[in-house]
Amino acid sequence: MALRVASRKTLAHARLGLGFLQSRSLQTLTLPDISYDYGALEPAISGEIMQLHHQKHHQTYVTNDNKALEQLQDAITKGDAPSVAKLQSALKFNGGGHINHSIFWKNLTPVSHGGGEPPHGSLGWAIDANFGSMEALIKKMNAEGAALQGSGWVWLGLDKEFKRLVIETTPNQDPLVTKGASLLPLLGIDVWEHAYYLQYKNVKPDYLNNIWKVVNWKYASELYEKECPTERD
């Protein structure tokens, strides 16, 4: 009886999730374009890394998530609760990989387009208020990213409930929201080896130091301003 009840709950939750995906037209994912050339972030990030990262790794997450979604829909139609439960990890991993990388491409921009220029206005003030300075923020994020065991991400996020900035890490391809429903990712740095190994070998701190030269603070500032608009007289 307990197993039967659990199976019904699993299928019910999956149906709700699939209905949400269908209503949002997200059942089929597509690889997003990058708004700059693969080599535009050099020398901070090589064009070879960017091309492989985008065309191979991100595309794989998209392909595998779409495959898992098709399998999920088929399992729900058949009432196959074990298969529904089994697919959850694939959907989390590949869906998370798509979400995180879609943010990552926007978090970067060539130096010629403002890459590395520190944020001004409300986000700049918030960074000073929460961390003391931009230098202190970078130092803390680099330390958190370098210390992360295995693969994952280091994030600068906005806690929308308390209107404060936070630094978090997530393992594998877990999105920032897994650390709290009120957390909005402003900046995510991929610390999987595929993001840097071809260029920096196993010296992850060098990658972390150099990526700040192409961070798109304008994009992060726009996200922050939408949630915490500057008060005007």
From TrEMBL:
Cofactor: Mn(2+)
A cellular component annotation (GO) from this entry: mitochondrial matrix
Sequence positions that bind Mn(2+): H53, H101, D190, H194
Reaction(s) the record says it catalyses: 2 superoxide + 2 H(+) = H2O2 + O2
Subunit composition and interactions: Homotetramer.
Residue span(s) of domain Manganese/iron superoxide dismutase N-terminal: 30-108
EC number: 1.15.1.1
Cited function: Destroys superoxide anion radicals which are normally produced within the cells and which are toxic to biological systems.
InterPro entries: Fe/Mn_Superoxide_Dismutase (IPR050265), Mn/Fe_SOD (IPR001189), Mn/Fe_SOD_BS (IPR019833), Mn/Fe_SOD_C (IPR019832), Mn/Fe_SOD_N (IPR019831), Mn/Fe_SOD_N_sf (IPR036324), SOD_C_sf (IPR036314)
Pfam families in the record: Sod_Fe_C (PF02777), Sod_Fe_N (PF00081)
Spans traversing the lipid bilayer: none
Cell compartments where the protein resides: Mitochondrion matrix
Family: Belongs to the iron/manganese superoxide dismutase family.
Residues annotated as domain Manganese/iron superoxide dismutase C-terminal: 120-222
Source organism of this protein record: Rheum australe (Himalayan rhubarb)
Molecular function GO labels: manganese ion binding; superoxide dismutase activity
Protein name: Superoxide dismutase
